[in-house]
Automatic annotation (TrEMBL):
Residues 1-94 bind DNA. Pfam families: BTAD (PF03704), TPR_10 (PF13374), TPR_12 (PF13424), Trans_reg_C (PF00486). Keywords: DNA-binding, TPR repeat, Transcription, Transcription regulation. GO terms for molecular function: ADP binding; DNA binding. This is DNA-binding transcriptional activator of the SARP family. TPR repeats lie at residues 843-876. One of its GO terms (biological process) is regulation of DNA-templated transcription. Belongs to the AfsR/DnrI/RedD regulatory family. SUPFAM superfamilies: C-terminal effector domain of the bipartite response regulators, P-loop containing nucleoside triphosphate hydrolases, TPR-like. Residues 1-94 form the OmpR/PhoB-type domain.
Length: 1014
């Protein structure tokens, strides 16, 4: 397997590029790949994925991501065990050099060793090869947390050290031209890295560019004083003195006050350069990747054409600050003039016309007013002529549209134009725009620290993280929050965090004097059309992380084409983000602004109707999928009446399990949203609609969350039938996570409700679920009696669904040792599932038949059935019950003497059970693993497995597995600790006799054979 982490994240095996899943799943792989071969603990991964506020389901979600990555690796033919779970963590078990960052770092180390060995030419070769693929940051495009952020910075610093080493070798060997190619883009990005600047100065001196070397010194000195408050070190000072002592006459191009070509001032200094850049921010934070990319791009392009680069983004993201910072880094290359103009494209003022803008820019260049033509064409001609005479930086800030700035474009080589705008501009000559994102969490906290005071922020890291999280990592919002703290010395950071999270109106706290976040957003909002303004306010009601076009149309109550136009307008003004594949999202702070605006503008009835349209669409779409997974039960939960927007349901795309997978987190949040908004019917119906999908994919935490909210909504509505439904399906998650007492209470309450309501079909289903709880808790006789009664009732009432009754009856019969009866029941279940073309019931029936075959000693038949069940699960995406099936498959393989394969299946079952949080399945896997390890001769490992099974089975009160664990321990300690073995066998016998299972006979036989110590 080959893994790329430099730049974006990618993985390939056997020539196949793997699909790496969700952003969180990619972060997991990135974390493991960067630390390949090392154990990364679950707490470390949770802190990385959710550094601010881990959800309750964090560990369960992490297990899901790991299990999904394993399946991805396995499907591509990667070696088994590439991703292993060890203790409380995971390890990527691959050759370290298959990760690109490891190779390049090793290349740097090898080059240092070659230099020590006196082989500099070979070191140059190794370093050049290593740096060839070392252009981009670690895990670019992947959302990283604190650990990977630190690793990213460490790798970036090592890359700079490698570049410094290679350029020094080039300079020493007389190849300073090659050194300059490497140094120029990096030196512009690292103005206070003295070693890098010293090497650049040395390379410039070696190429006879003394003026360039002096300019590097001057800029470095200013950067050190401005950013760090220090003077240059000894190496830079010595280089500068050497240059001054041996300086040569230079003739750089300069612009005079009247715009004519002028001779240079004494000493080669530019006379009368026009410097109109705003004061640079001394606390500039982050953006190193963006700045580096822009500097390299400008350096590549400047010799062939005038350079024009557009920086766009939402209000407050730091576009102007970045442009000014970038311009100052470019000063050594563009010393003749630095111009700046606010084009007023957004805000209350009227945007500047091109003619007025040209008048201002020409006056900044020093052109006398009398020489400036009155017509636009004349001004354009003069502007372009003046620019052709020097190397000039121009910042066109706050552009309204491309028509405003096209007349301001230079035509000759020698100028760089930086355009900032909140809109997406169409300018082919400018190349792709640099769309500025928000800061990373680490950068955001750093910005708060330099604004509010480092000691205050460092003293309350959790509160600081909460403040920047509320600010959405938006620079303007963070600066305003920091300024608010700086002006209130008595406040703690936690006080501001509390204010910001206080609810409605909290965004108003992000204000200092006349600067506000709301005001910045309003400047982008006000020019919108009335229809688009309404769409903007309505989409803020969507509770999920992103949404599709049909969902936006439902909220806005507009046709699809009009909704699309409105979203395009919002995208154009950076009020909305497109996240790919027809999906959109609002920045968190923008969502809050839109929501508060809606509360001020829209009547409550309008907001309620919009929410109802969205919920109606999602419930009906989810039910379409549910009917394909469980046709008869799901059809009973359909919403009454016709859908108000059938066109939108069709536009959602193919409605299948993949749609539910994509929308899973959004739908989970919608249940909560519906319950909190008092839309009770939507809350419980949506929870019910996604139940089967969550159950078959083992998303039991999602079932617990959605059905708890659904139950609260149903209870508030007074709908007794809905309450019983929520209780029953909530109980299913409690069963799979081994909370049997809670599950039994809920099911019994649901049964009482439907007995009173006289609903025979649901009543039978709920009673069938109760029988499953009975056999899980050791009440085998009660389970059989209840299931038999239900079958008899079905003969009198054919409307009942036998596929919901037969599996539990067959399992209970098997546990009780009534194998032939169990086979008959499971065969009938299999036949019904085939008749109905129901894959879910078919894969379960196959697995249950395999279990009975193991009890009968028919191991080859069992293997065929169990593998058929697993293949069907793999093909249909059903994860439900997979740990138990694999544990049984291992038992069958053990029966055939294939111990190595058996142990593999048991270990896989154990890993899956832990990933899914299915503790009863974990008990089964541990006991089976213990038996297989014993057969292999690993007595100590087998004992540990049974002891773990006993501890867990006792905790969850799984009596059957308690008995098996006790018997397994007794067998293993019998030879050395006879009293202990006897005690364990007696406890096991008591459990098995109480349950009435055939295992009691084997335990009694061992006790009879085992001598009593006298």
């Amino acid at each position: 397997m080959e893994i790329q982490v430099l730049g974006g994240l990618a993985a390939r095996t056997n020539g196949i590029t793997l699909r790496l899943g969700t952003p969180k799943q990619q972060a997991v792989l990135g974390m493991l790949a960067v630390h390949a071969g090392r154990l990364i603990t679950t707490p470390q991964l949770v802190d990385e994925l959710w550094p601010d506020d881990p959800p309750r389901s964090a560990v369960a979600n992490l297990r899901t991501y790991a299990a999904s990555l394993r399946r991805t690796f396995r499907s591509a033919g990667a070696a088994e065990g590439s991703l292993v779970r060890e203790g409380d963590g995971y390890r990527l078990s691959i050759d370290k050099v298959s990760v690109d960052v490891v190779r390049v770092v090793q290349g740097h180390a090898e080059a240092r060793e070659l230099i020590r060995a006196g082989r500099p030419e070979k070191a140059v070769e190794v370093l050049t090869r290593a740096l060839r693929s070392w252009h981009h940051p670690l895990l670019a495009g992947v959302r990283v947390g604190p650990l990977l952020s630190a690793r990213r910075e460490a790798v970036a610093q090592e890359r700079l050290a490698a570049i410094e080493l290679l350029t020094e070798l080039h300079i020493k060997s007389g190849r300073s031209d090659l050194a300059l190619l490497l140094l120029r883009p990096e030196a512009g990005e690292q103005p206070v890295r003295e070693r890098l600047q010293a090497l650049l100065m040395r390379a410039l001196v070696e190429t006879d560019d003394l003026a360039g070397a002096r300019a590097v010194y001057d800029e470095t000195r200013r950067a050190l004083e401005d950013q760090l408050g220090v003077t240059p070190g000894a190496e830079l000072e010595q280089l500068y003195r050497s240059i001054m002592e041996g300086r040569r006459a230079q003739s750089p191009l300069a612009l005079s006050r009247d715009g004519l070509l002028a001779a240079p001032a004494a000493g080669g200094r530019t006379a009368g350069a026009a410097a109109w850049l705003p004061r640079s921010i001394t606390d500039f934070v982050g953006r190193t990747g963006v700045i580096g990319a822009l500097l390299r791009d400008i350096d590549r392009s400047r010799s062939s054409a005038p350079v024009v680069r557009v920086i766009d983004g939402m209000a407050g993201c730091g576009k102007t600050t970045l442009a000014v910072h970038l311009a100052r880094l470019l000063l050594p290359q563009y010393p003749d003039a630095q111009l700046f103009i606010d084009l007023r494209g957004h805000g209350g003022a009227t945007p500047l016309s091109p003619a007025v803008a040209l008048l201002t820019l020409l006056r900044q260049l020093g052109v006398p007013a009398g020489r400036i033509p009155t017509d636009l064409e004349g001004r354009i001609e003069l502007w372009r002529r003046e620019l052709s005479r020097g190397r000039v930086i121009i910042i066109l800030d706050n552009a309204a549209d491309s028509q405003q700035i096209i007349p301001l474009m230079p035509t000759e080589v020698g100028s760089v134009v930086l355009v900032t705008t909140r809109r997406k501009l169409f300018m082919p000559e400018a190349g792709p725009p640099e769309s500025l994102a928000v800061l990373t969490p680490a950068e955001a906290v750093e910005l708060l620290a330099v604004t509010a005071g480092r000691e205050r922020v460092a003293a309350e890291p959790a509160a600081a993280a909460e403040v920047v999280r509320f600010c959405g990592h938006l620079p303007l919002a963070i600066r305003l929050a920091g300024a608010r703290l700086a002006h209130r010395g008595a406040w703690r950071v936690a006080d501001l965090a509390r204010q910001l999270s206080s609810g409605r109106g909290a965004i108003d706290h992000l204000a200092v004097e006349d600067r506000t976040v709301a005001g910045a957003f309003a400047a982008s909002y006000q020019p919108l059309s009335r229809k688009t303004k309404c769409t903007f306010r309505m989409i803020a009601l969507h509770p999920g992380s992103d949404f599709s076009l049909p969902m936006a149309a439902a909220l806005a109550d507009l046709p699809l084409d009009e909704t699309s136009d409105s979203l395009d307008e919002l995208l154009d003004r950076h009020l909305l983000e497109e996240v790919g594949d027809g999906r959109f999202r609002l920045h968190d702070l923008m969502r809050r602004y839109a929501s508060e605006l809606s509360q001020q503008v829209d009547p409550p009835s309008v907001r309620t109707e919009a929410a109802d349209r969205l919920l109606d669409l999602c419930v009906r779409a989810a039910l379409v999928v549910a009917e394909t997974l469980e046709p008869r039960p799901a059809s009973l939960q359909l919403l009454p009446g016709l859908p108000p927007r059938p066109d939108l349901i069709e536009e959602l795309g193919p409605l299948g399990v993949e749609w539910l997978e994509r929308e899973r987190l959004n739908l989970t949040m919608m249940v909560r949203f519906a319950e909190s908004a008092g839309r009770d019917e939507y809350a419980w119906r949506l929870a019910r609609a996604i139940w089967r999908f969550c159950y078959m994919r083992s998303y039991f935490d999602d079932i617990l969350t959605t059905h708890q909210f659904g139950l609260a909504a149903a209870e508030r509505s007074g709908d007794r039938a809905a309450v019983a439904l929520m209780q029953n399906y909530l109980a299913s998650a409690y069963v799979r996570t081994s909370n049997y007492p809670m599950a039994q209470r809920l099911v019994e309450s649901a049964i009482a409700a439907y007995t009173a309501l006289g609903d025979a079909q649901n009543l039978a289903r709920f009673r069938g679920n109760l029988s499953a709880i009975y056999w899980l808790t050791g009440e085998i006789g009660a389970a059989i009696r209840l299931s038999r009664a239900l079958v008899e009732e079905e003969k009198r009432e054919p409307a009942l669904d036998l596929t919901l009754i037969l599996p539990n009856l067959g399992i209970a019969l098997c546990v009780a040792g009534r194998y032939q009866e169990s086979l008959e029941v499971h065969r009938l279940h299999l036949w019904l599932s085939r008749v109905r073309a129901d894959d879910f019931h078919r894969l379960n029936a196959l697995a249950h038949l395999g279990t009975v075959k193991i009890r009968l000693g028919q191991f080859e038949s069992a293997v065929r059935l169990l593998r058929a069940s697993l293949n069907l699960r793999r093909r249909t995406g059903h994860r439900y019950g997979e740990p138990e099936v694999r544990a049984d498959l291992g038992a069958a393989l053990r029966g055939l003497g294939q111990l190595r394969e058996a142990r593999h299946e048991h270990e896989t079952a154990l890993e899956l059970a832990r990933d899914y949080g299915e503790r009863h399945a974990e008990c089964v896997a541990l006991n089976e693993l213990g038996r297989t390890l014993e057969a292999e001769g690993g007595a100590e490992s087998a004992l540990r497995a049974h002891q773990q099974a006993l501890k867990l089975a006792t905790r969850i009160d799984h009596r059957f597995e308690q008995g098996r664990a006790l018997a397994g321990i007794a067998e293993l300690v019998a030879a050395t600790h006879s009293d202990e073995a006897r005690r364990h066998w007696l406890r096991s016998l008591a459990i098995f006799e109480r349950m009435g299972v055939p295992e009691r006979f084997e335990v009694q036989r061992r006790l009879d054979q085992f001598p009593t110590r006298r």
